[in-house]
TrEMBL record:
Protein name: Exodeoxyribonuclease 7 large subunit
Upper lineage: Bacteria, Pseudomonadati, Bacteroidota, Sphingobacteriia, Sphingobacteriales
InterPro entries the record matches: Exonuc_VII_L, Exonuc_VII_lsu_C, OB-fold_nuc-bd_dom
Source organism per UniProt: Parapedobacter pyrenivorans
GO MF: exodeoxyribonuclease VII activity; nucleic acid binding
Top-level taxon in the UniProt lineage: Bacteria
């Protein structure tokens, strides 16, 4: 009952709370089906109880919020069935249709006790989100982007997004490292969470790291195993699928399931059901290339052997032909050399005889010319001697001529002679000394 205070009825807080408790208990006697988003599951492992935070949003804004409780026994039953139907455990952010009682506690306030959850409704919500991601990726024109890239013939350099302790990663390494042909891969591990809500930013962050050095890798492998069909809804998330679709090098997935294909797998370059299948794909790609190289090598060897056989036969034929022709040619040359030797001997003899005859002829001609030349020279000498004798001054004087000298010089004209000069006249038989008394120069 309220107490009187200054003529006012005053209720205590406990009285108000108990009143609300009674009103709600009287009003909400049944079990109700309620739809809400489980913003946070708040599962406590030590007790096994969950205290989900339930919200309703409109245009991204929270318009209603309420606490709830899911006791340990109910949680294990509901969660197991949820996994069987949806392939996912109860987790943050999932929209659920649940059956609950409504109660109010004076100490803890309004509470919804979750009795059951309809996984079929959540499955529909997950599928709706999946389809929305697909439609958005196609509308943006990036749905086939990663598939349009070119995977190297031998994708040797791999960036692997996985967990080092993952069974799927261990299976993958066992196959690629233990392949019977000894093919070697260069592997770099980028650790990330692989399931649950936190896997989305974790994988995207590692993709961002790899993209910064994308030229160092041939492909990215996202490897998840050991979790079965559970925890795959994160791979339907638009942000993760878009990051894969737009990635600059091919992305290969092996996330370990065999039912519904996730959006991330749809947009990836290559999808394998398991990490082991992905490892087999890579080894087959190596082996197919090795086989083509081996076939090419065999063809080259076969063709080279054929060509060598053909050339060997041709060479042998050429050798025989060369030997036969060489022998024939040598014989011809020997025969020609013999004829040449005979002709050379005959020509030498004839040339020698001709040379001897030419020498004799030259000797005879020289003798004849010499005699004629001597004879002519003798005649010329006789004639010259006669001419010289005729020019002898004594001979000239003997023919009645005389030479007059003045001071020892022969006088040829009256020039330079004066009266009274003494001149000497030479005759054939003596000299006359005269004194010039008169000069009679010629008129010329």
């Amino acid at each position: 009952m309220p107490e009187k205070l200054f003529d006012k009825a005053v209720f205590s807080l406990a009285e108000v709370a108990r009143s609300i408790q009674k009103a709600i208990a009287a009003r909400y006697k049944s079990v109700y089906w309620i739809k809400a988003e489980m913003n946070k599951l708040n599962h406590y492992a030590h007790s096994g109880h969950c205290y989900p935070e339930l919200v309703e949003k409109m245009d991204g804004k929270v318009i209603a919020e309420m606490r709830s409780v899911l006791w340990n026994g109910d949680y294990r039953r509901v969660n197991q069935r949820f996994i069987e139907i949806t392939g996912e455990p109860l987790k943050n952010g999932v929209t659920i249709l649940f059956q609950a009682t409504i109660s109010y506690d004076p100490l803890y306030g309004m509470t919804l006790r979750i009795m059951d959850i309809d996984p079929a409704y959540s499955l529909g919500e997950l599928e709706r989100e999946r389809q929305e991601s697909i439609s958005r990726l196609k509308k943006e024109g990036i749905f086939q982007a990663n598939k349009g890239l070119s995977l190297p013939v031998v994708p040797k350099r791999l960036a692997i997004i996985s967990v080092e302790t993952s069974k799927g990663y261990a299976d993958f390494l066992k196959i690629v490292d233990g392949n019977p042909w000894g093919y070697r891969f260069e592997k770099t591990l980028f650790p990330a969470l692989l399931q649950g809500d936190k896997s989305i930013p974790s994988i995207i962050n590692q993709l961002t790291r790899i993209a910064e050095h994308s030229d160092a890798y041939d492909a990215v492998a996202i490897i998840r195993g050991g979790g079965g069909e559970v925890g795959l809804s994160s791979y339907n998330n638009y942000m993760l699928a878009a990051a894969i679709a737009k990635f600059p090098i091919p992305i290969l997935t092996g996330i370990g399931h065999s039912t519904n294909e996730t959006v991330s797998e749809m947009v990836a370059y290559k999808k394998a059901i398991t990490p082991s299948e992905l490892a087999d794909f890579l080894i087959r790609r190596f082996h197919n290339f090795a086989l083509s190289v081996s076939r090419a090598r065999d063809i080259i060897i076969q063709r080279a052997t054929q060509l060598l056989a053909v050339y060997k036969t041709s060479l042998n034929d050429t050798g025989r032909y060369f030997r036969l022709n060489s022998i024939h040619l040598v014989k011809q040359q020997q025969k020609a050399l013999g004829h040449g030797r005979i002709q050379l001997n005959m020509a030498s003899i004839m040339s020698l005889r001709q040379a001897q005859q030419q020498v004799l002829n030259a000797q005879q001609g020289l003798k004849t010319i010499s005699l004629a030349s001597l004879k002519n020279t003798k005649v010329d000498l006789t004639s010259t001697e006669r001419s010289i004798n005729l020019l002898d001054p004594q001979q000239v004087l003997g023919r009645g001529y005389s030479i007059t000298r003045l001071n020892g010089r022969a006088v040829k004209s009256t020039d330079g002679i004066q009266k009274g000069d003494i001149v000497e006249t030479s005759l054939a038989s003596g000299n006359i000394i005269s004194t010039v008394k008169e000069l009679n120069p010629s008129d010329e």
